[in-house]
Every structure is written in structure tokens, then in C-alpha cells.
Design goal:
The protein is of the alpha/beta class and about 210 residues long. The protein is about 40% helix and about 15% strand.
Amino acid sequence: MHPDSTFNVANFLEPKDSIIVHVNMKSDIFSNIFSKFEINNAFSYIKEAQKILHLPEIYAGNGKRDVAGITDDTDYQGIKEKRRLGKAAAKSTLDGKLLDDFVKFMPDANEKEIITGKGDLFLDAEFRKRLDDLNRNTILFTGFFTEIQILRTAFSCADYGYFGVVVSDATSTYSERIYYEALDVISQAVEVVDTRDLMRIWVQSTSHT
């Protein structure tokens, strides 16, 4: 028997057992990703489903990290960010409208966002406590950046007792090539689904309850 023949990701995506974690939902990041239209389309479906199914959400963003051996007056993160921005897609005349659409998916004033210096969110005590308080087993990841925070945190899910799922079209980065390479790497350790399949699974799940 093929090892995948008995596995069904739908069994791990029950709404009553799922949490959505939105990472780095910031307008300045969105302005430079390559898949703005796809992100907005994905979030329109996810946010609607979240309201209907009462799925809990956690917003988390990266703050400044202390890097060993780097002096305080050297912005090491800024250097890396500048290099990565060099791979960003060219600007479009539609970017302004797409940004306006994205802003409504960002955390509002009433939503407490976890700001951490950890690339792997599981290393942040507040993040782990929020997960513990929600007492659910499956984490769905959206946001930015696919190859950094999303990848690192998704890889740690199993170590902390969670089933990790990356929603492919609801995450992005500056470079299309790096995005697809990162998803390929991520899929070796955790599940990767798109919103179309996720919505289909949730519709089928709720129709049986």
C-alpha cells in the first residue's frame, strides 16, 4: 500500500480544531510582494470563512532581532532586507488599489498583534501561550515571508505538538522564484494547501455537522 493512501489532510482541518496565524500583515511588505492580487483574493475567502466558522486568529509580526556579533549601530536586518528587495517584482499601476484592498485584512485597533524578535514564532512565549489558551491542534499559516517566518514556524509545529498547514496563495514574498522554492521545501515537512481546496474541505466538513 502506498504510504499516502491512508492520509487525508481534511481530517486535520476541522474548523473546530483549527487556528489561523497571520504573519507580518504589514502594508509596506505587501507593497513589494509579487502576488498582490492572489493574496487579496485568498484573504477575501479566508476572512469570510473565518467569520462564518468562528475560527480564532492570531496576528504576529517581526520586530528587531539581536544578532550575535553585530554592533548596535549596524542594521543587519536592514542590509538583508535591502538585498531581498532587489529581487522584488516591478511596480504596477494597480498597486495602489490592491494595497487599499489589502489594508482591510490587516489587524485592527482592537486586535492585539504579537510583536517578536523571533524568526520562529514558537520561540516567543506569548505566542505559545496564545496557542495554549485556544487549545486547538491545527495551525493554518498565512502572510509574509514564505521563505523566512512562515517556513521556520511551520517547521516547528510538530516539535510543539501541532499540525501545521501553509495556505499557499495566502502567503507570499518578494521573489516569485524564491516563493515556489520555499513552498517546495515546506511541503517536505508540513501540508501545503490553497484556498480553493481549503474552502472545499470546510464546506464538506460543515455539511456533515
